[in-house]
Design brief:
The protein contains 3 helices and no strands. It has helices spanning 9-38, 42-70, 79-106. Helix 1 (9-38) packs antiparallel against helix 2 (42-70) and helix 2 packs antiparallel against helix 3 (79-106).
Amino acid sequence: MSVVGFGSPLGLLAGVLATASAVVGLYIGYQAYRGLRRNDERSMRWLSVGMILLFGLTYLLAVTGQGLLAFRVIPISLQNAVRLLVRLTQLVGLVCIAYSLQVATNQ
């Protein structure tokens, strides 16, 4: 049994931690959405969208993409496309959060 790789204990642990990160990220996004529902402010809207993208969708895309690649559901040639999609989602989430901070200082 190898120490590193998909079938290894470290690979399994990495997968479990990535899944836990996705779950916690979605929970953070849900809490941000609840805050938006309480305070229907423009800055809160952008903050909640950014948090959902950054903490929820990014990890979900990463875990799902990694699983699809590992089980060869999609070809390995799409690995960089999956990585690009994850990074793009991160960037859009960060831009939304930065914009929310800018909107909040202008109000």
